[in-house]
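Predict the assembly for these two chains.
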Amino acid sequence: MNYAFSLRAVVPYLNGLLPAAMATITVSLATMALSLAIGMLFAIGRQNRSGAIRFISTAYVEFFRNTPLLVVLYFVYFMIPTIGLRLSSFSSALVAMTLHAGAYMTEILRAGLLAVPDGQYDGARSQGMTSWQILRHVVMPQVFRTIYAPLGNQFISIILGSSLTSAIAVNEVTAWTQTAGAASFRYFEFFLVAAVVYLVLSQAVNLARIQIGRALFPEEQGVSGAGRQP
Amino acid sequence: MTDASLLAYVPILLKAARLTIWLSWLALLIGSVGGLALALMRTSRFASLRLSAMLYTEFFRSIPILIVLFFCYYGVPLLLGIDLSAFAAATVALGLHASSMMSEVIRAGIDSVRRGQWDAAKAAGMTYVQMMRHVIGPQAVQVILPPSVGIYIMMLKESSVASIIGYVELTSTGLLIREQIGSGFAIVGVVALLYFAMCYAISLLGGALETRMKIAGRSMQLGELR
């Protein structure tokens, strides 16, 4: 071992870390929001009466759950200029990550919708509620309870997955690590810093989920505070 | 570019897909051994073993596989003064990551075995190894196998990151062909379809396995009630 470990080597590059971390957070938050919308659309689509809509929704979910995010990123990144669009690599990354995460969101939301007993719909209908009112006041609060914990885990996978956007030139934390590591030849220190950044981000989400869960669902301590599923 | 010219690349891609399968299979193998060790540590009597296994698992589930991969490929050679090929680095990185996931699955399997089974095995005078081998293990496997298929699919997909450090598997073969063609995205689409075909086929097999295991699991519980 003749490698002189020195965290001081990281210091000159630290002013690049903040914008990089912001990029990681921004792309993750945006993916989370967009994939939730897409997931809702397809989750409802998977329960549609029309067989064609059900098939399209299922095909979407199965395709994106069974392809690597990295390949989807490359596909979108190379496709967008070919079809005559001009998008930054950040936007391309957002499109690809949303398509990918949307498939997982669909499954989470679908499980949430399926967990609402049929009697709840019947009861709400007999109260004279409109479809929208049923969705808004009866179904969604119950769905939210079911999806709450998986949603937190999904957010962590989105944050970790965003590291792959460095492959299509998005300047986030992993790209910063790579550039700074190559420039200084101090890979070890930079990977350590990057690991700490990701560790802090994902544990912050994890702890926030547990704490907020305790406040939201005080009656089911064990469930909302339960550990992450594999 | 016509579709026929893309078809010409399919044999090369299939050969590359075999490397992807090989890489992910090795990762699963390392993951199973590492995961078993970690799961045994997490269910052990000693708090220090439990804590270190938990820290390992949480650490690897909280950082991206790409950072682990970079660490293995660029960091380890600097640190230890040994040269790691891209293949070796990718195998180790994926294996470390798989271990953390397998440990959770194996732990859930061990935890699923009822308390009475442990007590009975202990009362019969079995050693720890005998107990795990003859009583706990066979019952835990039914809970462990179905999610392991999911972890293998995950490894198949995650092995695509090896392309970033220059290991020529399926993804990077696709990118190299794309460079040779000049531009376009269709070849990346073909690569995506190949991944889909592999993962979807395995997930269907996994689904069938899960159904069978569930039935086995139910009959096991019925047997216990009697």
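Chain B touches chain A through 47 residues (CB under 8 Å). Chain B has a mean pLDDT of 88.
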